[in-house]
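HUMAN:
Sorry, I am quite new to this. Are you able to go through these amino acid letters and fold codes? The numbers rather puzzle me.
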Amino acid sequence: MAYGTNPPPPYPSTARRRGWEGEVLLLVNVTTQGEVDKVTVHQSSGYQILDRAALNAVYRWEFQAAQKNGRAVAGQVMVPIRFSIKDIQ
């Protein structure tokens, strides 16, 4: 299951001002059409505002569905979202 060309979530301004960084690990259920069915936080960043920003962004992403015997199947994928102030452009 591929997810590489989706835009990263915006860095919440409150978190940026306070210097909050972290990585959120999301478990994403994907339909046979590559649409997001459900997203849950598998591992928190430690900051609810970062977790929420990641969840909201990934709900809008599109995926390439997994394949089994040449046919698209629903599946799950772990998606890491890293919030790092030095990576902000």
Notes: The chain has a mean pLDDT of 92. The CA atoms of residues 20 and 54 lie 14 Å apart.
